[in-house]
Amino acid sequence: MGVFVFLGVKYALGDVGTATSYDPPYTPTRCNGNQADQFPSGNLFISVSEGLWDNGAACGRRYRLKCLSGSRKPCRDGTIDVRVVDYCS
């Protein structure tokens, strides 16, 4: 896994993995505590582990994820855009 910059845009490379979900409450988060406005419209947000956390600098970063399999939304269209709001160990 690594992070690189191309034409001023930061990209992250990672191994194929799995996604997970968890039930509310989603707060507090490591990025913005209990602020309700930290979650993007559509509620597509993620927590990242040490490889992308960057000592908290990852907060607010946006990533486009390519969905390789799964029949459930939001992966039906191939990619989704998400925002980092939390750290996961």
Number of helices: 1
Strand content: 25-35%
Strand order of the largest sheet: 3-5-4
> How many distinct folded domains?
1
**Residue-averaged pLDDT, rounded?**
75
Query: Helicity, in percent?
Result: under 10%
Low-confidence stretches: 1-7
Cα distance spanning the termini: 16 Å
The best one-word shape is globular
Task: Label this structure with key terms.
globular; 31% strand; mainly beta; 89 residues; two-stranded antiparallel sheet; three-stranded mixed β-sheet
Structure notes:
- The chain has 89 residues and is mainly β.
- The protein has one domain.
- The chain has 1 helix and 5 strands.
- It has one helix spanning 50-53; strands spanning 2-6, 9-13, 45-48, 62-66, 79-87.
- Strands 3-5-4 form a 3-stranded mixed β-sheet. Strands 1-2 form a two-stranded antiparallel sheet.
- Strand 1 and strand 2 form a beta hairpin.
- The longest helix has 4 residues, at 50-53.
- Mean pLDDT is 75; it is low at 1-7.
List the topology elements.
Elements: E1 2-6, E2 9-13, E3 45-48, H1 50-53, E4 62-66, E5 79-87
Structure summary:
This is Expansin/pollen allergen, DPBB domain, RlpA-like domain superfamily. By secondary structure, the chain is mostly beta strands. It has 1 helix and 5 strands, in the order βββαββ.
